[in-house]
Amino acid sequence: MNPISLFCILAGVALNATAQLLLKAGTNAVGHFDFTMSNIIPIGWRIATQPPIIGGLTCYVLSVVVWIVGLSRVDVSIAYPMLSLGYVVNAFAAWYLFGEVLSAQRLVGIGVILVGVFLVARS
Prior knowledge:
Elements: H1 3-30, H2 40-48, H3 51-71, H4 76-82, H5 85-98, H6 104-122
Helix pairs in contact: 1-3, 1-5, 4-6, 5-6
């Protein structure tokens, strides 16, 4: 994989991970809610107008564009497993930004993901 192809794949992963973090920040701002017939429109509006959620959806759109460029250059059997790096990025970012727990079991899982991505990338 050449540097431009790697950049496209990693940029797609980074945009996708950023989208998830922004969506989480937006839902944190909205808070816990129950979907009922009486609140579906007010909650839907509140969700749709949260700047982090709008930013997250924008990142998703950009990630798809960058991902398509990456897929035009890299085999999907190599590119798709790279998306797993988003799990690693999000786990550490959620720990840092939102105070989520990184237990030993999660860290072992992250290690397994990293080994798997390394093996696929080297194939």
